[in-house]
Amino acid sequence: MGWRDVVYGAYERRVLKDLPKESLPRHVAVMLDGNRRWAKARGEGTATGHQAGADKIEELLEWCREAGVEYVTLWLLSTDNLHRPQEELEPLLKIIETAVSDLADAGHWHVRIVGALDLLPADTAASLRASAERTAAVTGMTVNVAVPYGGRREIADAVRDLLLERAARGESIEQIAAGITVEDIAGHLYTKGQPDPDLVIRTSGEQRLGGFLLWQSATSEFYFCEAYWPDFRHVDFLRALRAYAGRHRRFGT
To answer: For residue 240, what are the contacts with CB-CB under 8 A and spacing of at least 6?
Structure first.
């Protein structure tokens, strides 16, 4: 163990000790960004970066569990990513399938897939559904895997499902329009029944949402980290929690 490890270890312990347990988030959402740039900086192929990012996920989930987080949402693939070249997309989908299957096999988390699965190849969608189903009886922390996910698509899907549900009851379009509430739409989101994220973390230095949880993040706190996702450390996570705990949440007011 080098001196840097010793210093960081001592620093992590101090930050963890000072975190106010009563002010930590219930729901943490993470934009796992920077895999491709991480690989490019090392002269590696894109698939290597995606695999390194996938290998970091379970470590993050352990940190969340230790901190008492109840829900974690991981953005692994956007709907826009589906337009990438097939030579990049196909290996990425296989990496995601394997990563989600490994999470299910671990048996520690209740895994849910949140996204437009109909946009994926049928075998990939089936694999993701099967992995999530294997965790149906698991209690404890819920892990939402957002793939393929787009915030605008989610809202459109929610409104569409709501309209179809009301129409099936025999309501006219005028009746539906007159009665729609914010709560009605929220009840048809991919994350329905869950609390909105308290904290949204984005790695890689980018400071934008990019369409992530557009509806649910209306009152979330945001933390932007310079590290590429594969380099995201425990101390970076603790700093995000510390920043969150130190803010006065105004909930949009």
So the answer is: 199, 201, 223, 225
